[in-house]
Design goal:
The chain has about 160 residues and is an alpha+beta fold. It contains five helices and seven strands, in the order H-H-E-E-E-E-H-E-E-H-H-E. The chain has two domains: about 30 residues; about 100 residues, Sporulation related repeat (Alpha-Beta Plaits, 2-Layer Sandwich), CATH 3.30.70. Strands 1-2-7-4-6-5-3 form a seven-stranded mixed β-sheet.
């Protein structure tokens, strides 16, 4: 009797374990569903971030006969003389760390170029500026002939104008 009860109990347990247990097929289905959901979120997230950056950084203005990238932003002087920083500053490098911005500025100064570092109050980015101007048309002309003025350009983007607020 006990032997039969034990066999029946073992059979019931085996059925329950196999019926409720997970297998490779279940794991694969759950993994694929999670991966598809993650991919959708990453695509939406990356696209949104890229659109915001594009809108923020592609503010252009027509100055004279030129179309230049012009961004209005509040900045602080990190390294440089207040006399250098004007209303319109030509930015030739953007960095997340002040050390990198200062290193680039030092390389420019070693080549004989003038440069100074500004920090954005909005994005906390460090900008290396090559020159400052009181008139926007002078700054636009400088940007268009940047290779005549600056020997080392490391930025992947074209230099742009920062209008101080």
């Amino acid at each position: 009797m006990k032997k039969n009860l034990f066999i029946i109990l073992a059979a019931v347990m085996a059925i329950l374990v196999s019926a409720c247990g997970t297998n490779e097929k279940n794991y694969r289905a759950a993994y694929d569903k999670a991966k598809a959901h993650q991919t959708k979120e990453e695509d939406i997230g990356d696209e949104f971030v890229n659109n915001v950056k594009r809108e923020e950084h592609i503010a252009t203005a027509i100055i004279g006969n030129d179309t230049v990238r012009l961004i209005h932003e509040r900045v602080n002087i990190v390294d440089g003389k207040p006399q250098q920083v004007k209303l319109f500053n030509v930015i030739i490098g953007e960095f997340k760390q002040v050390f990198n911005a200062r290193s680039y500025r030092d390389r420019l100064k070693a080549e004989g170029d003038s440069a100074y570092v500004l920090m954005s109050m909005k994005s906390r980015m460090y900008y290396v500026a090559s020159a400052g101007f009181n008139a926007s048309n002078e700054a636009a002309d400088y940007v268009n002939h940047i290779t005549d003025h600056v020997k080392i350009l490391i930025s992947t983007e074209r230099p742009w104008i920062l209008a101080r607020q």
